Fold each of these.
Amino acid sequence: MQAPTALETPETDFNTAAHPERATLLRAYRLMQTSAAMAQLYEENKAVTAKYVHATARGHEAIQLAAAFQLRETDYCALYYRDDAFMLGLGITPFELMLQLMAKRDDPFSGGRTYYSHPSLRRPGVPVIPHQSSATGMQAIPATGMAHGLRYLEGQGLLQAAEQQPVVLCSIGDGAMTEGEVAEALQMAVLHQLPVVYLVQDNEWGISATGREMRAMDAYEFAAGFKGLHRLQCDGADFVDSYATMYAAVQHARRSRGPVLVHAKCPLLGHHTSGVRREWYRGNDLTQHQQNDPLPRLHQQLLTEGFSEGELGYATAQAQTAVQEDYARALAAPNPDPATFADHEFAPAAVTEEAGERSPAGADKAIMVDAALHAVDDILREFPEALFYGQDVGGELGGVFREAALLAKKYGDARVFNTPIQEAYIVGSTAGMSAVGAKPIVEIQFADYIWPALNQLVEELSKSCYLSNGKFPVQSLIRVPIGAYGGGGPYHSGSVESTLLTIRGIKVVYPSNAADMKGLMRAAFLDPNPVVMLEHKGLYWSKVPGTEDAKTVEPAAGYVVPLGKANVVQQASAEKLQQGDTCVVITYGMGVYWAKTASKQLPGQVEILDLRTLNPLDWEAVQAATLRHGKVLVLTEEPLMNSFAESLAGRIQRHCFQRLDAPVFTLGAANLPAIALNVELEKQMLPNADKVHAALAELLAY
């Protein structure tokens, strides 16, 4: 029997009328009372609880508990900021939630670093909850990436027997369904038939905007356009109906391994958040929503099921007492130690020393593009959890620069594959892949195309390690061809490193030769943090005059260069150094070759320091080179104004001022918004060897 294609919705025969057992009903009632008591307590004590903004599940409790009750320890979930009842259903206590509410030290999710109901948790007996952002649509991509990673690991036989048929549940508000990134996630879920359940909680409000203002259709209607996405609807304020629907949804994803969307209508009974109060804008709408309160509805259902008022009263009293006691404990809990504020920017690097053979005897020289191809080939052969995807990297082409040539044929379409034109998915899915144990290598086709991915790179990848207190670093290697040469024009020639370097929590690597390309590629893959590898297109084949040295003897398989270590690629002569007639060029990428060519007219006078990694920066090497020479040129291909190069020059002047014999010089591209198409205009805009020589001559004569 053939697996269903993305154009089919598999038929299911699951019991959509699954009815919760009595113990489940009573547990749901107790937890619903707990959630309501927490919301009431937060309101009564808002002078304390609203110090940091929060939202509660009030009105959404039924669907959240119904969903939580379907999940196993081996499942994954991406929750949204109103899902505190969901977390109660998973077994997280009010005390733990209140620790996060008050940003306390022992907050189990972030140690006091992020908002209430922003969980990140690895705990036995509970589904894995990777870190995510504030979940207004962005979480759909990492959640789908989790399902994508699970589907891949399953296909490779890399999941333990106890982990078979895991599912991912992505919780989201209907207002966030209008985000373009949600459409990217749904497209990939149906294209690859991924085991993910999208739970859409629709209360017909954004903040102050109503559903009719924000959308032309609800999520259920919208989802009809994604063929292969199984759709269900339920009354999200009715626990029994919600339970039956979520049972059917999770069983569909678990057994059919395909995606499901559940659209649950819920009332919004609390504030949007503690900072945007309901009385400011809700009017008569709140009265209408209160008529659909899930708590009295469940109370009446339980009486019909044969529960007594005494049983329900006892459960209510238990819940309210526990909430009051937990609140008192949370108030008294210690705050974080301020000395820990900088912990977990990055997970510890896996590679700290150069290792392996850089120049094996008898090895041939390789161009940079081949060194990159061979590095990825080595990784895929050695690490079965590794996979590689992006636009046009799969199939016959193997990338527009042939940097993945034949890899899809060698490793199969499940490991090396094309994606749609979805830069946000390409980057953001790696957060989900990493969370489930897959190790993605992805490619953005040109640096100029990276902008749609920045939302995911900033919000989902860069913050995960820090805001999860080190629990969820994102292992992600993102390859980005970059740079200008030969008339690439305004959309294929840009340099973006300064923008990337303003994003904390990611590493940025920029090799300038084949040996470094291979060693840095492996180190970047092994690093447990997000790494963006910038690969200059003009150096790929060493065809640009002056770049012949980018072609080097190819290192052996397994060779690594640690991130954050610069390299002196050209030394000044000892004689000139002793005479005080030298300078250092601090650069990277194409700048190395402009400096080499320019320095031929200044024999023995120019040291060239190739940074190789821009973050983390090898400040010790920069400082040592500055102190050796006293004269520094910082060279970049980027427009100079407000660039990384200018920032580095300022830092050198601040810390090395007394040892400088001249101001720190800088040289970069013209301060224009794009690279012109005409090659003569391009040459005029960019640095070149002649411009570098003129700057060096002026610097040495200072």
Amino acid sequence: MRILGINALFHDPAAALVIDGRTVAAAEEERFSRRKHGKRPVPFSAWELPEQAAAWCLKRAGLRPQDLDAVAYSYDPELARSAADLGLDDPWDGLRQTYAREAPGFLKAALPGLDPGIVRFVPHHMAHAASGAFAAEGADTSSVLVLDGRGERASHLAARRVHDRLEALHAQELPHSLGLVYEELTEHLGFLRSSDEFKVMALASHGRPRMLPELRRWVYPTGDGGFHATGVPWAELCPRRRPDEAWTQDHADTAASAQAVLEETLLDLVRWLHGQTHDGLLTLAGGVALNCVANARIAREGPFDRVWVQPAAGDAGTALGGALLLAAGGGDDPDPMRGADLGRDWSDAELGAWLKTAAVPFDRPADIAETVAEALADNAIVAWFQGRSEFGPRALGHRSLLAHPGHAGNLERLNDVKGREQFRPVAPMVLAERAGEIFDGVTPSPYMLFVHDVAPEWRERIPAVVHVDGTARIQTVDRRAEPLVARMLTEFERRTGLPVVVNTSLNTAGRPMVDDPRDALECFGSSPVDLLAIGPYAVRRGDFFRSDDTDDASR
């Protein structure tokens, strides 16, 4: 079957294409439109579709809309209840539901030739669940836990996969929502709601959970696989912070308390689910599953032998999950994800043509990995643009900013380059076979979705990647899956003795991750990055801005 998955209703619109159970392509609309998260999650934007992402997915496979067997739309308006009935303050939610019901017509207009009759509404949390249960390796029989802000009428789903079936075990109805509680705190702390929740997680490491007893009055597990989470009086815990205002210890302590009560509740849900299934594998999806601190605690203290997190755990991942769910239901055997590199790429010749059109000086070294390793050893900041772009919010060695981890000042330096708050950490990438001697935690960790304790003897050697609490959110690199990145890491260690490189996303604050060559050149030209490694080519900052350089061999 040829199935196109679509996520559109709330935020992070995305498209994914699954053919005969195999994921061929997946991309978020923000990478094409250059609007962070694609759109704001308000009812008035619910009609907007991932038109460019969907068109690209079809083009990648050489398909036309009329060639599709089904389209999975990751929301079922028939399951929804009014916002008032759900206890939500969302007076325009009826408009959102109207747009959802009209989605087949909107899709027909966006993809000329598409038969609207093949559009299938997939329940939102079942799409999330399928993105974990059908994408994880070795998940033929496994448990899955979904937590986010909201779906049709719930904010949580506990389920189980047995072969080609997903069985729902329990759902927590709204208004109780761990995701919405965390979103409310994000807004209270002066950050952008439904966007900056990861900043709250980072800020929590700077605080103490001294408000935890108070928060437990409002957020707690109910012992039956569900929870209470609504009505937190945030203003009683700390003053509201304006976006342009410095954070205080009260803000950090509130964040730490919220993080702690989230982790406590998640552990109870995980233990309840294991008691129902006794499975060895737990898969996680939904926006809450991007909380890598909570994920690490679930893996460390929970009853499951293995925990796997969907790398596009937020709503974008429901495009993939919806398509996988229909594929499994139609008789296809879903193929596990082999990596998150499911987006666009360009051939060496195409990249060279881009650079020539841009009239920038560049060269083609014998080995771009060795060139980058040498630049990093000299403490350069490198923009790394290689292969297919990542699906999901993490840079995983395809659209990355790289730096030397041995200089503590590189954390501040990178945050300045990206225009980020200085309390936010950057992450290390490390060869999978070397991770165990430096980091304590879940390995392999190819998607940067768990935090790890940094071994004490390494903290002074790689200070740029050690967070204030002594942890790091690592990415392990498999030589077979990522040979170019592995060679760069090997060459860097040969020069420095350090098997770790700083890896953060190739973008600046408020902008989506770089996706195409034009994005890469714009980012490189507007920020103090020393070297752009784009495919096999190297663009050096000094040459880039040397106006009298007219005799470069590449021109």
Amino acid sequence: MTLSETETRAPAAAPARGARIRPPRPSDKPNGQWKVDGTEPLNANEQFKQDDNGLNVRERIENVYAQGGFASIDPTDLHGRFRWWGLYTQRKPGIDGGKTATLEPHELEDEYFMLRVRIDGGQLTTEQLRTIGGISTDFARDTADLTDRQNIQLHWVRVEDVPEIWRRLEAVGLSTTEACGDVPRVVLGSPVAGIAADELIDPTPQIDEITSRFIGDPELANLPRKFKTAITGHPSQDVVHEINDVAFVGVTHPELGIGYDVWVGGALAAVPRLGERLGAWAAPDQVAEVWHGVASIFRDYGYRRLRNKARLKFLIADWGIEKFRDVLETEYLGYRLADGPAAPKPLTIGDHVGVHRQKDGRRYVGATPIVGRTSGEQLTALADLLEAHGSTRLRTTPHQKFVFLDIEEDRVEPLIAGLDALGLSVRPSLIRRGTIACTGIEFCKLAIVETKENARKAVLELEERLADLDLDAPLSLHVNGCPNSCARIQTADIGLKGQIITDDEGNKVPGYQVHLGGGLASNERDEAGLGRTVRGLKVSATGIADYVERVASRFAADRVGEESFAQWAHRVDEEVLR
């Protein structure tokens, strides 16, 4: 579906709110844009990608490194191409966060790997879940973490075991292909795609087309950096679309019917920028083409000389949204997209926790572990529990949660009891429901501070301390081990960024810088916005519960009417937030 040449284009959307980011400054040096500067590599990272496509390392892993062990791995493969198959070396135990920035990667890394299982759309069967659980117990010391990108990560994996792990995953339709690396990462999809009673459109066909056509395609396996995608047809806008490189949000066009509002250029990290509406509407059968066009622009025009500028958000900051859309349509699509409306404000919470009606009359049940931490044993038990209650389908979510599908109404309460026994809460406290955490210093070479355990302890303490506090919505607490924002600290009510801080006695200790009042479009706010930072406001790693109790209590006492935490945090004086 296209517009005729006589039709006029609607004004482009206003720039999304976010940190100001600057493209590389004009200079005599090329920026590594392939269609502008040519394809000559301008740094070591670009060189190794051109020397050998990252996808090719699989053959060496299976036939050389798995036999020779860790010591046999070529350093460039180890620190580069392994990522194309979901493998990162993990942090060596006992190295404190103060040394993260001073040691070389080989000094920080252990001879074990994090393995990321790619789960596009978060869609799993109990057979697949049981397979992941078995791999965890057999090869990963019973570790398993839900990520906020719907994947499951395992740790303590040896290279010798990777071929067998791949064999088991692929036997049930799972893979680790391009789960990491400078490639199209996992496609976030609505966890209730195809089953929610209030769904506008099921994005599963679009997710399937993108992944089947383009994931593992050598033509897209050398991007400037990672490329993130989100697609939803649910009115809660449940895929954090504003912080993805490209996103599609279900919307009804007044003339053309149900399709997708297209967003581009979102990403957080140390220099966050919220995505922008392209101003275009894509029909369901156009989504894969539009996705491929945006990814190809990134490949061909993205900045490659400086790795810290090699995300799509920097190109869009340079070009502007109107030029980006024009290049997409004229150079890559060959037709104009229809102008389209924005999706309305969400009316419900998008984490899907609790019991909800499916379109077929059955129920889906959303449950949360504490900060995404689970285990192989628990995953296997979950598969057994779900099957015992008549279902073989579940989903992971972008909020480190599970959604269990196809539950008959009379089996809901027995399932909830079984989930409680496994440590998964369908009716969690507001603080447990809203807390997520990245991997942290336990396994991550970039981390400065512990996250999972600190957040877990804080949640358990706060459930007691805040039990009588008048909070009517989940308080989002996001805990990150470094400035890279894997846990989306800038878009949380309370975001904690790991760093070494100075305590009251002058000692250097692990702690966090505090961001307050961030959030994405939700039932509480019309549009996304980044959190506020207060100069000098930092908390120690052991002081999370104390700080959250203090600021939450002040919010409950000082809020005006139905004011949200984010509105309050941006309104009050800095001293109130300390």
Amino acid sequence: MNNVVPVPSAGEPVIHASPPRPSYIPPFGVRTVIGCLGMLLAVHVAGFNEHVTEIGLTDIRGAMHIGYDEGTWLIAIYESFNIAAMAFTPWFYMTFSIYRFSIFVTAVMALLAIPAPFMPDVTSLCILRAFQGLMAGCLPPVLMTVMLKYLPPEIRVFGIGGYAMSATFGPNLGLPLEAFWFERVGWHWLYWEIIPLAALSIAMIAYGLPRDPMHFERFQKFNWLGLLVGLPAICALVIVLYQGDRLDWFRSPVITNLSFWGGAAFIVFVINEAYHPSPYFRVQYWRSRNIQASLLSLVGILAICAMMGEIPGIYLEAVRGYRPIQAAPVSLVVALPQLLMLPLIAAICNSRRVDCRYVLSGGMLCLAGAAWLGTWLTVDWVRDNFYALQVLQIFGQPMTVIPTLMLATLAMGPADGPFISGMVNMLKGLANAVAYAVFAALTRRREQYHSTMLLDHHGTHGLALQGMGDPVNRQLAATSPDSAHVARNTLQVFHTFVHEQSLVLALADIYFVLIWVCLGYAVMNLILPRRVYPPRAPSPNTPAR
């Protein structure tokens, strides 16, 4: 009988075996991989539901007879509920279990797409899209938790890379998908495209994810005040970002009231989260330098990527008259290589010899280089001129997103996962709203400035050019014997040229601003955060602490 346990000598550390894994977390294998891939697919489905309908909104408005102003509310309402849901999701999936919660929200999101093209008016469509956005917003936090919880430590960084696909691969694939569905199949499929993919993801989740238990006892400490105050507060602030520029910001009573009451409610929400025993996320995390740097960087980097992805489409559509199917290759140049670049960057960051802060700064330099090339934008550019910018973004986007997520998540312990997940994903969604608001404000103001300067120069120097003739008038003179009609057409062509030039100059100004923002983030992430190391499996003989 050898049941005698050796007693350690004085001063020798006590060594315990690693604690067993919970019974509902199976050993890592093919089944777990399928479940994680199903969760990843569900998040991409939610992203397609967001980006494809947003990009194809012009075609949807034409088919459903929706005005421009009403169409902007469709985007604002969907995004507000989408972002708000991310803050509260971790509490619900910890209560109802990841397995059941994921299947439920994915199924509801897909089912709501069926009646979307047949809504009788804008109000009913907005209500439907609000519920659909609420369901779609629940999925990204679940994906982050699944990747951090079910993957072994040795490949957890690759799980972070998979999560980063929702910020790099998915958004860049939105334009090609919109072009394919509208041009080849029909506008209804801008809503329905998610149904078959959602069914596949549900099957993969049902097969692969473990049946973790439900914890209804958590309702005894349910944070009712946080939900009742935080949900409308976040929705109000997101609507302000999406509608502020169109309604001229605080000159609009709608924006003023939403900002005041939404801001006041958000302050109450933050105070409640700081002291509630069962918060949705912990405000105290902001005391950490890594959390400060990574979350601020996450918002800025995703906003930069969104704006740099938006500019080529805006230019090609407004100046060159491209349809989405013609502009799709510009987005595909960035999207498809991500399938290779994301695992490659994850493998580099998974080495303990590599400091992810330097990878992040290198990625910011790539984005700054792309923005510098964009400052050479002219009205003569076509689709091919953007490929050099897009190639730099192929490297820059994964090199910035993956290290940022590592800095945000790997500095935390396992118990902190749900709390940091909600905060990271809410700010990730908020980055799109910030990018939308900043891009709209900068474009409008710089376009107005350049338009005013161009007209001023024309008025000042117009007489000096009279001896050179009017080539536009000469070309249009043969189209009509009515001189007044020709004069109106000439003036219209002139204003079209002024609009194109002012828009191009405004977009070049945005590229110039992005250069300095990228350089600022590159320096900040070399100074502010502390280094984190990729996780490794604990040794069974690790001393207890």
